[in-house]
Amino acid sequence: MTAHGMTGTVSFTKMEGAGNDFIMINNADSSLSLDWRSFAASMCPPKTGIGADGVIVIEPDSETDFTFRIFNADGSEAEMCGNGARCAALFAHEQGIAGTAMRFTTLAGVIGARIDGNEVAIEMTEPFGMETGIDLDLQGACRTVHYVNTGVPHAILFTHRLDEEDVAGIGRLVRFHERFAPAGTNADFVEVQGPGCIRVRTYERGVEGETLACGTGAVASAILSHHLGKVSEVPVLVRMKGGDLKIDFTAGQKGYTRVWLMGPVTTVFTGQVRLGT
After folding, report:
1. Which of 81, 87, 142, 197 is catalytic?
2. Taking the CB of residue 194, how many other CB atoms lie within 10 A of it?
3. Is 44 a catalytic residue?
4. Exactly one of 44, 87, 197, 214 is catalytic; which is it?
5. pLDDT 10s digits, 227-264
6. Residues 57 and 140 in one domain
7. CATH of the domain at 33
């Protein structure tokens, strides 16, 4: 592929966190000038590209260790991605860009991270915009959802039959519902398993389908489960198809603060992409 006429090769690392997989690009020296939207749309498909939920680009920042940019599989740029940010933290550390404790800039704000081996924890931006008890008409069927923004928007649907939910179909209706226009929302289906454990399946905006995990969705699901009294123990264990995540937070009069997303990150492989013809 070409990007602004650029030819040559681009080195990348494929990483995954709880089954969310990303193509990691080190552009800390600003040597690459690519159309990252086109690059993501071309490289993310599993059959014709590398295969990933998104492309993450590490770029320089004057006030923090680096700038984090994420481009979804459809080429759109997202504000934040929890598991992507965890992958970015480990990637930046392994590339010598940051130490085991770091701060980096995202479109959703400054994120803190700490690394212990392959376990990566990130301190999320404080959630905002919480609304509960929103009744939606989904092509004739009424579902109650709860909303919070954890860096990106999430609508939560509680269920007692998680495995039977039509995550792709209902999730798409919620994602594009006029109630959340024009930006849209992610849709998370949550089943409570105990006082400190939930299961979650997520339809992700930008990927436009169900993913194996979603970090910001895990945070949103845990916080709303706690807020509605469905879980009481903290940290909350969030079980997703791609693996388990832990969400820690402080709940107080000012809302939810000191929100941490924790879990392992794995390097899958490294390689090079040839640009041009």
Report:
1. 81
2. 11
3. no
4. 214
5. 999 999 999 999 999 999 999 999 998 899 999 999 99
6. no
7. 3.10.310.10
